[in-house]
## 1
Amino acid sequence: MKAPPFAYARARSLAEVFDLLDAHGEKAKLLAGGQSLLATLNMRLSSPELLIDISRLNDLSGISVRDGTVTIGALTTHAQIERSAEIRKHLLLLAHAAPHIAHPAIRNVGTIGGSLALADPAAEWPACCIALDAQIVVAGKKGARKIVAREFFKGLYATALRPGEVLTHVEIPVPGPEYRSAFVELAQRRGDYAIVGLAAVARPARGALSDVRLAFFGVGTTPVLARKAMAAMEGKRASDDAVAASTKALANDLDPMADLYSTAATKMHLARVLTGRALTSLAA
Ligand SMILES: Cc1cc2nc3c(=O)[nH]c(=O)nc-3n(C[C@H](O)[C@H](O)[C@H](O)COP(=O)(O)OP(=O)(O)OC[C@H]3O[C@@H](n4cnc5c(N)ncnc54)[C@H](O)[C@@H]3O)c2cc1C
């Protein structure tokens, strides 16, 4: 199918974006990498009157590290994150997650801001941001505000973004050198959206894990921080018993929805398998 007709404006500044959003309200849509939006237009799932192209706003692109925080601009592509030496040095979880996102052609154009704003429950970046306790920064005419990642995703393709706001960047605290991360995902084929995935962070010390964070994706309408499973593992060695207790506790954290490929029970089983793999890897 072809996209319905729409007007197009290439924004030259954030101020211009705010003016256009103000004038056109919900009839306007931001265009970043276009890798999800253009598909929804072509399938006529969305029919905005105006596309505001933000892809030339260079201030919204790039990766910087300062005072223990990595800042990633909304327009930074998945491929830039994948190839960044700073990301590999400070946020290895993202480096490990990036190759799971779609295919190189899509990663070259798709952006982290687009992925977070879209809030696909099977996407990798939202779960990574929750695992790393990121702050998502949005701005509008009235100023900027920061939203902690675990509160940003409100439902299926729904976020805390308000009308007139643009996601500008993400701020991620650099975990200390004593922290480790694990990224595990099951998909039909490499590059497909996840059936189930898990972004995990913990601090191993003397064989035990503390500050455990387990963020699942592909299991519900939003990414999920599995607090009960995290608590069950806190301060414990990754023994068979502790891992079993943590995976058992997942029943209180996750309420998976069936999708085209898997029943809810299969997803729960896969989430448990991934938890075991991630915890063992974190403790190794
Ligand atoms: C075949 C295929 C496979 C894919 N597989 C995966 C996968 O495995 N994992 C995965 O995570 N993704 C996958 N994607 C999606 C891809 O990662 C997209 O790049 C991403 O979801 C959206 O980023 P974008 O820059 O292309 O955003 P766009 O498509 O331009 O925009 C997406 C939505 O976000 C809004 N938006 C964009 N930027 C902003 C902003 N800065 N502020 C506020 N709103 C904004 C837009 O208005 C739109 O509603 C796949 C896509 C395709 C086509």
## 2
Amino acid sequence: MSARKSRKVRAPKANGKLNGHCPFRIGRSRTGLGVFATEPIRKGTFIVEYTGRLLTNKQCDEIPDNRYLFEVNARWTIDGSPRTNVARYINHSCRGNADPVIRDRRIRIKAIRNIEPGDEITYDYGKDHFNAYIKPHGCQCDKCRAKRRKARAEARAANARRKKRLERKLAQQAASRMH
Ligand SMILES: [Zn+2]
């Protein structure tokens, strides 16, 4: 396995940064690129805006599907696919530390926990996106990886117990044959 170095990628200039500066950088994550805090971000802080072309949902049906379409409400969707939309690099987590807040046809990503420097910034993409794009490949978020690790450990323990039982049984059979 190759060691994955976190490589700095310059954030495009026209990003949706809020509060005057950029408390994050784009870097290598488990699943490609991700967004990482470079300084402490207090719970409740707006981190970045999810920007892109504002389309009616009807217009959306007419363009090729892409995973960065973010439905704002029953009428509007933001097409966040341009690379200038830094927020598109924020990965999904089933237990994210941020959350999109939708208001006035704008999407802003807000910290819902205190985030430490070096932490990856993530939010829950929601059920529809999860089922369409993430579930088929297996979710790589910390929570799901921990869950799978636990399941594997339990399966290993159950196997070991089964093996022990079998060995005991064989030993008993061997012993009874000796008599
Ligand atoms: Zn997950």
